[in-house]
Design brief:
- It is a single chain.
- The chain has an 8-stranded mixed beta sheet, sandwiched between helices.
- The longest helix is centred in the last third of the chain and has 20 residues.
- The radius of gyration is 17 Å and the shape is globular.
- α9 links the parallel β7 and β8.
- The chain is α/β, with parallel strands linked by helices.
C-alpha cells in the first residue's frame, strides 16, 4: 500500500510503470475502490504503465474537507500525477470517474493523451436523485439502499451465477464511508460538463454495459455523439461496472483504442 499527501488529503494509490509504454490511470466509480480494476490491471499490466488510486472519501483515502466538488477530485488527480512525475496519461474513468476525467481535461488538458469514459456522461442524474441518496447515506447508511445499487451494477446473470463475487462487491459498497459517499454524491449532483464536450480534442472512447441500470446505453451513446470523433462501444452481458463483470472485453477495447485510434490520431 502506498500513500501520498495531495491537496491536504492522504490518497491511497498503486503505481506500476512500464518504461516506454503509455500509462493509464483508472478512476473508480461511486461506492467502490481501486480493487474494481484488478482483473483489467492484470490483463494490461505487462504492456502499459498502470496507476490506480482511491478517490477521496473512498477506500483507504481520507475524505478531507467536505463538501467538495468534482473540481476537487480533478485537482487530487492532477496532484497525484504531479507527485508521480507523470506528464502524459490516458485516463480511464468509470461513472463519477469519467466525470472527474472530463474535469481534469478542462483544467489540465496538457496531461491527457486520451480519454476512456466508461458508463458515464457529462451530466448524470438529477438533484432530486442525488439529494435522496445523500439523505439516505447520511441518515440510514449505505446498507439501506445497497441491494438496489447491486441491481444497477450487475446483470441478472451475475446475480444468479456469481453470488460469491456479488456478496464481496456488496460488502465493498457498504464498507465505504457514508460521509465520503454522500460527499461524492453532492459532487456528481453539482457537476455539469455538457457545455464542454464539444471542445474535447483528444482521442476518446465511450463505453457502456448493455444492461447498465445507472447510465443506460442510449444515454452514453448520446454523450459520445457530443464529443467530436468519439468512438462508442457497448459491452455485452455487463451492467454498470464492466471492469468487474467483463474485464477481458473491456481490456480488449482499451488495447484496440490505444493501438488504433490513438496511434492514428498522432500520425
Amino acid at each position: 500500500m502506498t500513500f501520498a499527501r495531495i491537496n491536504g488529503t492522504t490518497l491511497h494509490y498503486r503505481d506500476r510503470p512500464v518504461s516506454g509504454r503509455p500509462t493509464i490511470i483508472f478512476v473508480n466509480s461511486l461506492g467502490t475502490d481501486l480493487r474494481i480494476w484488478s482483473a483489467v490491471e492484470q490483463l494490461l499490466a505487462e504492456d502499459y504503465g498502470i496507476v490506480l488510486y482511491d478517490q477521496r472519501g473512498h477506500g483507504l483515502s481520507e475524505l478531507g474537507d467536505a463538501p467538495h466538488a468534482i473540481e476537487t477530485h480533478a485537482a487530487d488527480l492532477a496532484g497525484l500525477l504531479d507527485h508521480l512525475r507523470i506528464e502524459s496519461i490516458i485516463v480511464c474513468g468509470l461513472s463519477i470517474g469519467g466525470v472527474i476525467a472530463q474535469c481534469l481535461y478542462g483544467t489540465r488538458p496538457e496531461l491527457i493523451d486520451g480519454l476512456i469514459l466508461c458508463d458515464t456522461a457529462a451530466k448524470i442524474g438529477t438533484s432530486d436523485i442525488w439529494n435522496g441518496r445523500i439523505t439516505a447515506a447520511s441518515s440510514k447508511g449505505i446498507e439501506s439502499f445497497a441491494d438496489g445499487v447491486m441491481e444497477k451494477w450487475f446483470t441478472p446473470d451475475f446475480h444468479k451465477n456469481r453470488s460469491e463475487e456479488l456478496a464481496g462487491y456488496r460488502t465493498m459498497l457498504v464498507r465505504q464511508s457514508s460521509a465520503g459517499y454522500a460527499a461524492a454524491c453532492a459532487a456528481i449532483r453539482d457537476a455539469d460538463f455538457r457545455a464542454d464536450t464539444a471542445s474535447i480534442d483528444v482521442p476518446t472512447l465511450c463505453i457502456v454495459g448493455d444492461q447498465d441500470g445507472s447510465t443506460p446505453p442510449e444515454f452514453v451513446e448520446a454523450f459520445a455523439r457530443s464529443i467530436p470523433g468519439a468512438r462508442f462501444e457497448v459491452i455485452a452481458e455487463a451492467g454498470h461496472i464492466p471492469c468487474v463483470e467483463q474485464p477481458k472485453k473491456l481490456a480488449d477495447l482499451i488495447r484496440q483504442f490505444i493501438g488504433e485510434d490513438m496511434r492514428r490520431r498522432t500520425r
